[in-house]
Amino acid sequence: MFTNTTVPLGATDSIRWTFGDGTSSNVVHPNHTYTQPGTYTVCLRVQKRNNAGTPINCVREICHTIVIATPPPACNLVVNYSWHADSLNNRKIYFTNLTNTTSASAIVTWTFGDGTAANTWNAIHEYAQPGRYLVCLKVQTSNTCVRMICDSIVVGATPPPPCNNQSNFDFIRSTANSQTFAFFPAYQSNAAQYTWTFGDGTGSTSMLTNHTYAQAGMYNVCLTVWRNANCASTTCRTVQAGPTNNCDTAHVNYTFTRDVVMPNKVFFTAHSTMALIDQTWTITRVSNNQTIILHQNNPMYIFADTGYYRVCLRAVTVGGCVKEYCNYIRIEQIAPPNACVLQPYPNPATAMVNVNVNLSVPETITAKVYNTLNILVAERQIAGVAGNNVVSINIGTLPLGAYIIRVTHGNAVCYGTFQKM
Predict the structure, then answer these.
(1) What's the per-residue H, E or C state across the chain?
(2) According to CATH, where is 2.60.40.10 located in the chain?
(3) Rounded distance, CA 191 to CA 178, Å?
(4) Pair 178, 240: CB distance under 8 Å
(5) Tell me, which fold does domain 339-420 have in CATH?
(6) What is the rounded distance in angstroms from the CA atom of residue 302 to the CA atom of residue 286?
(7) CATH 2.60.40.2550 domain extents, the chain
(8) Sequence-ordered list of residues with C-beta below 8 angstroms from that of 118, at least 6 positions apart, any chain
(9) Class for the domain spanning 81-155
(10) Per-residue confidence at 13, pLDDT binned at 50, 70, 90?
(11) In 3D, which of 210, 158, 215, 213 has the Cα closest to residue 187?
(12) pLDDT for 166-217, tens place per residue?
């Protein structure tokens, strides 16, 4: 994306971008995709127009050279793992590598959060002390294809959950047989009694249990946990035995928006052709490969510095399809330290919009209103006095939509947003 920072830039000004590959655009802030890597000269030409829209003799042009690098080969590696505690020793943990690679040359590194590590595909680790540990799994299949996931686990003696939550459970589908499942409760205690029903007329009283369904289909699996006469609960979940959805038809991507006051505060939104049940976001700074992992839905992230970042979404759909989508984002500036937030009123507004500006000394207050294309559409300047100042701007002729109001006085820069109705 190319950002037009021309000042001042009127709504009627003539804009022409040339991208150095024989194409051009008249959009204020264009997006452009180069078909080949290489070095290109990008030029922006702006010609001013008067209020009637007639060109005047005021033309400026600026050119910059950019380099489009050859993209690295696609890395479709999706790293994930599951874990469960030993039924007799809850400090002994079994880790299962769920990464989607069959490469025998893959380099695997487990770090268990207690200063120890392992390099086996699956791992068994016994912790010396109970507690919470951050466990990371890194898998590398080439010099340019490295992925890592980190998650916290709780090891050892933990207080029993409330009675209504003690029957929560998870399950893992076998990769060898899509009708075989491993079930394990979230609360595991030899002092409790466990009763499983698998939805096909069979059941089990083991704390940890496996089950193979004779027929493919949807089944309602229930777990009842009995701790004492006053503490019992039941939880049910639906599992799909047999072939799952056609994952070739599943597609995911994401969009993002920037905060109008903090341009380094970014809101991400996942999109998919199938319903999503899990999202993992990996944010990697291109310059030093520092990686942040967010395991949450549609996250907001505040970038600490400018530069290019590779943002990847790993999504799991209903039915177990795992898809990944990656793209690059550029952080051009971070929020100025003296930025402040305005509260325009009324909001929504119809004819006039107002903001309160408090000054410690008399000074000039300049208020400017921009549309979502960052084009100045209204402006007012007043002589501010010490104390509270009400700055009112006439917006009666503006089209309906969202607007940004920017107020400056002295060294302060304040922002606010409002809706024109």
Answers:
(1) CCCCCCCCCCCCCEEEEECCCCCEECCCCCCCCCCCCEEEEEEEEEEEECCCCCEEEEEEEEEEEEEECCCCCCCCCCCCEEEEECCCCCCEEEEEECCCCCCCCCEEEEECCCCCEECCCCEEEECCCCEEEEEEEEEEEECCEEEEEEEEEEECCCCCCCHHHCCCEEEEECCCCCCEEEEEECCCCCCCEEEEECCCCCEECCCCEEEECCCCEEEEEEEEEEEECCEEEEEEEEEEECCCCCHHHCCEEEEEEECCCCCCEEEEEEEECCCEEEEEEEEEECCCCCEEEECCCCCEEECCCCEEEEEEEEEEECCCCEEEEEEEEEECCCCCCCEEECCCECCCECCEEEEEEEECCCCEEEEEEECCCCCEEEEEEEECCCEEEEEEEECCCCCCEEEEEEEEECCEEEEEEEEEC
(2) 14-68, 81-155, 163-241, 247-331
(3) 32
(4) no
(5) Immunoglobulin-like (2.60.40)
(6) 16
(7) 339-420
(8) 109, 110, 112, 125
(9) mainly beta
(10) confident
(11) 158
(12) 899 999 988 788 899 999 998 888 889 999 999 999 999 999 999 999 998 8
Q: What is the pTM of this model?
A: 0.32
370: tokens are 């921009």
Extract the tokens encoding 50. 């008067």
Question: Tokens 């400017």 identify what position?
Answer: 368
Domain 163-241: which CATH class? Answer: mainly beta
pLDDT computed for residue 294 by the predictor: 84
CA-based torsion, 321, 213, 196, 130: positive or negative: negative
CATH tag, 14-68: 2.60.40.10
What amino acid occupies position 131?
G
CATH 3.30.1070.10 fits 247-331, yes or no: no
